[in-house]
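User: Could you check the structure of this?
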Amino acid sequence: MASDFYTTMAQVLPLLLLALIWDSSFLDRLHGQRRPSRRVDPSGVLFWTKPRVRVYTLFVAVVVLGSMAVAVCEIAGFIPDSFTLRVVLSCGLALVLGTLLTRIWYDVIAATVTSGERDSVPNGEAGASAAKS
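Assistant: Sure, the predicted C-alpha cells are below.
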C-alpha cells in the first residue's frame, strides 16, 4: 500500500510542477509586469513583488523536485518507508496544490474582470492580480 503512495507521488508531482511553472504563460506574464513595492510606488503591490515571487516560486520548485527525489529513492529501496516520510511528502503536495489553487483563483479573476472592476485592480492591470499567487 505504501509503495502505491510513493509511485503516485513520483508521477503526480512532475505534472504539478509543469502546471505551476510552464503552463498558462506564468513566466511570460510575470516578466511583462511592472511590480514595484508600495514604498517605491504608492499604487504598487502590497506584498508580492518580483523578488518575493521569484523566491517563492523557486522554493516551491525545490520542494517539488526534492519530493520527487525522495519518492523515487523510496521506490528504489534507498530509504525506508515511514509514517513521517509520508507526512512530509503529503505536506509538500499540499503546498504545491495550495499554490496551484491560488494561481488558478487569481488567473480566473484576472481573466473575467469587467471594465468597471478593472479600476479596482492594483496598477490598473488585470494580470497583476494573477501574479500575486
